[in-house]
Amino acid sequence: GRAEPQGAEQSPRRLGRLLLTVVLLLLAGAVAYAMLFMPKQGERADGQDTSKGAVPVDTAPTTPPRSDPEPTPTPSGKDTAEPDAKPSAEPDGEVAEGFVLRKDPEGFEVAVASGWQRAPRNGQGQVVYSKGDFRLIVVPGRDSAEQYGRDPQVYQQEHEPELQPYRDSTWAGSGGLRRIEVGGKVMAEGEFTWTDGQGRKLYVRNLAILDGGRYHVVQLRGPEAERDQVTRLFEQASKTYESTG
Q: pTM above the 0.85 mark?
């Protein structure tokens, strides 16, 4: 028979090699593209590091933990004391709007609401500022630690004359009893309720201060239904009281 031309036999081989070359070039191009443009291991497409050692950054706003205020105690019986307490900072002594710092001739200064009337020192050693149903009673160093001991909490609960109505009342309660130490002074604070001689229910905030061997008293009395106002008036008086005698 007649032999086929040699060129016809080589043509399919040449075509196969050409196709193989094209496939290899495409693979090489794909690998090069992946190396240049695909994100590296441990990174996201947006450039942030996601490797094991990385610490994610929290961009969400943080909210401080909520702290609920202490409830105001209600009359549930006497002598409900709390543990000793020390304030984190000394009171700043600033006078709020609507108050005046009264420099009393009896040897002390204290913030009193504007428009309150002052009564002269009485036979019990009390200086009283008052308006309407509210009374601020200040006792500047009447009683001595030598006579009543050096524990303001015991003095407040058992001896302080300004709290005798609480001890005698058939409807009485106490709460928020605590010991405070500030700048070398030792104090006892408490909240009290009792019924006065006219049958009115009173809410009373009291502070007994042992300073220089003598007891000073700052007490605010008002209607039991006006607890917030009593507290507001008392806080101004208690944080600004200073013996000047």
A: no
